[in-house]
């Protein structure tokens, strides 16, 4: 690929639209997982009494266990949502661009 071909792709409106969509969705998912993760870390730092409470009277499981599992599950769900979005939106757009710029 020479410089002219690369410049043509980089200035193409469909390519720029794809980059904009990927950047936006990545920012949303990154912000979501960071908020969830740091909220949990802050809860660990400042809410030890709350996290250390048993779920029910006589229970060995504390409130922190399901919350910690929830953080892990949230990461899986967000990953799954991104994969779903990529399969539905990103991959078809990439396929169109490849066909458009195929030599």
From TrEMBL:
Report the transmembrane regions from the record. 25-45, 65-85
Superkingdom, according to UniProt? Answer: Bacteria
Family annotation (InterPro entries): DUF485, Inner_membrane_assoc
Keyword annotations from UniProtKB, A to Z: Membrane, Transmembrane, Transmembrane helix
What's the protein name?
DUF485 domain-containing protein
């Amino acid at each position: 690929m020479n410089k002219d071909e690369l410049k043509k792709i980089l200035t193409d409106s469909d390519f720029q639209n794809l980059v904009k969509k990927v950047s936006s969705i990545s920012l949303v998912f990154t912000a979501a997982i960071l908020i969830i993760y740091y909220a949990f870390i802050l809860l660990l730092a400042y809410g030890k009494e709350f996290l250390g409470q048993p779920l029910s009277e006589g229970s060995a499981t504390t409130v922190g266990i399901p919350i910690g599992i929830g953080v892990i599950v949230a990461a899986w769900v967000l990953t799954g949502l991104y994969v779903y979005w990529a399969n539905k939106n990103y991959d078809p757009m990439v396929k169109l661009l490849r066909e458009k710029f195929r030599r």
